[in-house]
Amino acid sequence: QVQLVESGGGVVQPGRSLRLSCAASGFTFSTYAMHWVRQAPGKGLEWMAVILYDGSNKYYADSVKGRFTISRDNSKNTLYLQMSSLRAEDTAVYYCAREGYSGYDLCCWGQGTLVTVSS
Amino acid sequence: QSALTQPASVSGSPGQSITISCTGTSSDVGSYNLVSWYQQHPGKAPKLMIYEGSKRPSGVSNRFSGSKSGNTASLTISGLQAEDEGDYYCCSYAGSNTYVFGTGTKVTVL
């Protein structure tokens, strides 16, 4: 079965960087687009970024464009999110998700990893 | 990329039907039949309930149905059950390989 496991979250100071990972298993990772979605404490879901199956193209929400970079290593079945210039408002649970049935939905989600930006 | 608008809360008694609306614009919901709906229980990851506006993934109860009219998509839960309590989010493709989520709706079973 599809399994996505995020890691790399923690407490980080404002202005610093952090890299999240998402280890995928149970499907052919290299054939699916992958997304990052975040959820601030007590708030709603926010789509952040998508990377196509081969890593050739990446797209971002305006809120993180220029600060966050999505990438993948298909040889390691792993998705990444490099976050820089972190701000307090980036505090959230970060989920990775796989594209689903239509290519425009998110069928499968990880359990999330919490990032807290605080001094 | 403004969030789609959903009612903050909807409630109903067991066995009743409820409908959650999701209002966007002609640039997202109105332009594509690519709205998906997600259920989220406290402390858990979201779960896909509807994709392409009205299609159900395998394993999702047929009590869940989706539709769209103009710039507004809707999720209907019929035969409401206690396990349906939780938060529900719509999400629409917004063009140029970007997506936008709704503000979320808390469903309460009375």
Structure, explained:
The complex is a heterodimer of chains A (119) and B (110). Chain A is mostly beta strands and 119 residues long. Chain A is 0% helix and 51% strand. In chain A, the strands form 2 sheets. In chain A, strands 2, 4, 5, 6, 9, 10 and 11 form a 7-stranded mixed beta sheet that branches. A 4-stranded antiparallel beta sheet of chain A has the order 1-3-8-7, with no helix packed on it. In chain A, strand 5 (45-51) and strand 6 form a beta hairpin. The N and C termini of chain A lie far apart (40 Å). Chain B has 110 residues and is mainly beta. In chain B, 0% of the residues lie in helices and 44% in strands. In chain B, strands 1, 3, 4, 7, 8 and 9 form a 6-stranded mixed beta sheet that branches. The relative contact order of chain B is 0.34. The mean pLDDT of chain B is 97. The A-B interface holds A 35, 37, 44-47, 50, 57, 59-63, 95, 100-102, 104-112 and B 1, 3, 32, 34, 36, 38, 40, 45-48, 51-52, 55, 57, 87, 89, 91, 93, 96-104.
Dominant shape of chain B: globular
What is the radius of gyration of chain B computed over CA atoms, rounded to a whole number of angstroms?
Answer: 13 Å
Rg of chain A (C-alpha, Å): 13 Å
Order of helices and strands of chain A: EEEEEEEEEEE
Distance between the termini of chain B: 34 Å
Cα separation of the termini of chain A: 40 Å
Please state the structural category of chain B.
mainly beta
Largest sheet of chain B: 6 strands, mixed
Query: What is the typical, i.e. mean, pLDDT of chain A?
Result: 97
